[in-house]
Amino acid sequence: MDLMSSTADVGRRLRAFRMGAGLTPEDLAAKAGVSRAAIYRYESGKPPKVDTLGKIADLLGVSLPTLLGVGIEYVASAVSFFERMRQLEEDVDQITVMFGPISYLLTTDRYDELLPKVLDESIPEDVGDRKAAIREIGALMDILKTRKETFRRRTPSIVSLVSAAELDEFGRVGFVGAHNHPSVNLAERQKAARDEIEHIVHMLREQPIGVQIGVVIDSMPGASFQIFKRADKAQVAVSPFRLGAFANIRVGVATITAAAEAVQLYGGMTDRLWRKSLKGDQAADFIEKTVLKNGAAA
């Protein structure tokens, strides 16, 4: 990678971690003892000297190697993580994704309408940082909607692996953030989940250009992940964060790496799962006869 690309990547990471820390450029400038214009320059791809960058990393609660992209990026904020995903998807050629129960990029607009409520429900009332977590939902939704808009505009190819077991659970419990939440109309949320599953069935039958979906009957990895591929580079993001039923935007540490070994291992695993998965009409028939039929019976 040339120096220009490298410095641009540092600027992108700085922006993502600043957003995850809940800081405006003005906030970070005041804490770092630099001007607001300097922060904008850094984020646009003109990073400061290493000692200044080290101070900023400390203020953002990340290591200097993570900010520089040396080795593995460790990301403890859902806002930072999904902003990094948005950045990586800006110039990607192919996406391979296993985020249960359904890849966010393939969800409907109705999903976006309900997601803020689901995220709110997922945050317990008695947690000490609930107010801060609620404030982050707005920032997170802005990032996610921009991701979806970019995906629809650029239409990179996407390979989405879907767990049949997770789809079945999604249909049964509904699109909810927590068990037995007092403000939730369960029947409405179960219908919302079924609508998303039917949307997957529609795509399996219609097979839109560039969209490949495989329904996996076998065991699936516990962690969600996404592989980003472009002509000159591939990266893997592994995440504890969830945007579906029983969402999690508070707890866990995600990782992002371009290490060849990681890309190869995750790529090999997805290839094996893809080969064994159900596709097209076969997958659609399976979902209708098992997941949707079971949900209707319940």
TrEMBL record:
Domain (HTH cro/C1-type): residue spans on this chain: 14-67
PROSITE patterns linked to this entry: CRAL_TRIO (PS50191), HTH_CROC1 (PS50943)
InterPro entries referenced in this protein's UniProt entry, alphabetically: CRAL-TRIO_dom (IPR001251), Cro/C1-type_HTH (IPR001387), Lambda_DNA-bd_dom_sf (IPR010982)
TM segment ranges: none
Gene Ontology MF annotations: DNA binding
Residue ranges constituting the CRAL-TRIO domain according to the UniProt record: 1-167
Cited SMART domains: HTH_XRE (SM00530)
Name assigned to this protein: Helix-turn-helix transcriptional regulator
